[in-house]
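Board notes, transcribed. Complex of a protein with nicotinamide-adenine-dinucleotide.
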Amino acid sequence: MGKKALVTGASRGIGRAIAEELASQGYDLYLTCLHSMASLTGYAEELGKKYGSFCQAFQGDMGNPEDVERLFSSIRSLDALVNNAGISYIGLLQDMTPEEWNRVLSTNLTSCFLTCRQAIPLMLHAGGGRILNISSVWGAVGASTEAAYSASKGAVNSLTKALAKELAPSNIQVNALACGVIDTDMNRCFTPEEMQALMEEIPAGRLGTPKEAAALAGQILNAPDYMTGQIITLDGGWI
Ligand code: NAD
């Protein structure tokens, strides 16, 4: 039987690139999106044809327990879980409503809890598995005007380390990929001038590409079993 992976938030950006990387490695895929079901279904078909893999699209909010249960109701086995779905929020903390705070925390953090609690029994049954959480450099150092986002990614890092300890005896490795600035729609809120200023701060002199993030994600999923509980940074030397 082929290897199976679930990638959340695969309709665009980093998740979309990770889906192609894993399809090229021979994984069958479960891909999720929040709204873009038509385009994700088309993409799943495209990957299926290109790499000969089974790819299934699913629409749902990964921060919602019922949606995650519905997703897992059709998954019988899973070798790799990539928790990529995420949103940012830019603004002063005092201007943020409790609803906006909850949405950031539920999408970025609770989603990891909800998918992990469904995936772990499948991985235990198979004798092992891999979990990769897509985090951010802001999870380690924090960013002004991104306090909720930073808090959510800091918690993702702690969850990664704690869960790695909990699951290492069961041969399930848990790691995180902490990205710097990657060129995706998530950063379209910045003006060209702001992007230019950002690039000048980054020693590599440019943004990372979704393909680079996906290539590293693929390598982490293939790392030796002894690597677990690690937060691996991809940021062009920035932080
Ligand atoms: P993006 O906005 O291009 O894509 C986000 C994806 O998540 C989309 O497919 C969207 O449908 C999905 N999504 C959003 N909310 C969801 C929900 N509630 N349930 C299910 N899916 C949902 O963003 P991206 O830049 O590709 O980001 C992917 C991940 O990488 C995120 O976790 C993000 O925090 C992280 N990251 C991105 C950057 C960056 O600079 N782009 C930097 C550090 C970390």
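The chain has a mean pLDDT of 98. Residues 8-15, 32-34, 61-63, 84-87, 107, 134, 136, 179, 181-182, 184-187 surround nicotinamide-adenine-dinucleotide (CB under 6 Å).
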